[in-house]
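Handout for the seminar on molecular recognition.
Each group receives one record of this type.
Step one: identify the two inputs.
Step two: read the structure output and locate the region that could contact magnesium ion.
Step three: write two sentences on what you found, then compare them with the reference statements printed after the record.
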Amino acid sequence: MISDNLQKAIEILNENELIAIPTETVYGLAANIYSETAVSKIFETKNRPLFNPLIVHIHNINQLEELTSYIPDKARLLASTFWPGGLTLVLKKNSKVPDLITAGKDSVAIRIPNHPVTLALLKQLSFPLAAPSANPFGCISPTKAIHVEEYFGDKLQMVLDGGDCKNGIESTIIGFEGDDPILYRLGAIAVEDIESVIGLVKIKNKEEHTPDAPGMLSKHYAPATTTILEKNIEQSIKSFQGKKIGLLLFSQKINSQHVIHQEILSINNNLEEAATNLYSALHNLDKLHLDIIIAERFPDIGLGKSINDRLERATKK
Ligand code: AMP
Ligand code: MG
């Protein structure tokens, strides 16, 4: 049920049950990090493999001390610059953090989300919330309450309504090897913005290189419809003539009678706006019973990198 009843949301979470919560990145499936029962339900509901650790959501930077055993200076700097916001920090955990949250790893992923409803919720709870994206494992992430409702229906007592997600793409994840920052996932905060604060960051976001970030599967965020990623859209349309084609484009429509539906992510040519609209456009296309979705490759700068990353994983066979 989609609802904006904050008190009811608190009640459900205190009873070791799940709710979906709004964040500025995507909707999350949230539970008390200290309740094994509740956290197990996240994995069951999402059908998420247990090797894939969860992000812990807090509301105050001081809570870092409660969950971690070591905080590099660059992590503090990133937290004070980008929180609340779309940046997750992976830090050495302390013994209070349950193994189920971290998939047995000695590190824990943490962020302060920038959403007034979820910040108000977190402030009234006596525990942080573990919250992966509120979609079945591998599917398109939800950026509207209705996306979550369509995925889980009665399996969830409540989708706490916070409107559409403003950033619309998952958080950027930064961990550390010693004191050196490593980027595990491209996301809502552009790499260039991170590097302007802490200098060059090593990127290790491909599955084969990331035993340290076990959830970074090469296939992910995928529509049910076959989806491909192309530089030359017109050429690609020609090769699928006679098929029901849908397009996912950056800023400009394509003139073609062979195409059934086109989603334009930003008529203003703005990469932030494109990221905001990405998943919603994929949800729309996926409902049209198309034979093929052809997605355009984005410019490889700023959030264009994060969008390309998601499209590459969405189109992986
Ligand atoms: P999601 O909650 O669906 O956005 O996925 C969270 C992702 O965060 C996981 O798939 C991992 O890639 C990453 N992550 C979470 N915890 C850790 C950790 N302790 N170490 C490295 N990566 C992590
Ligand atoms: Mg996810």
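Reference statements: The pocket of magnesium ion (ligand 2) is lined by residues 132-133, 141 (CB under 6 Å). The domain at 227-314 is CATH 3.40.50.11030 (Rossmann fold).
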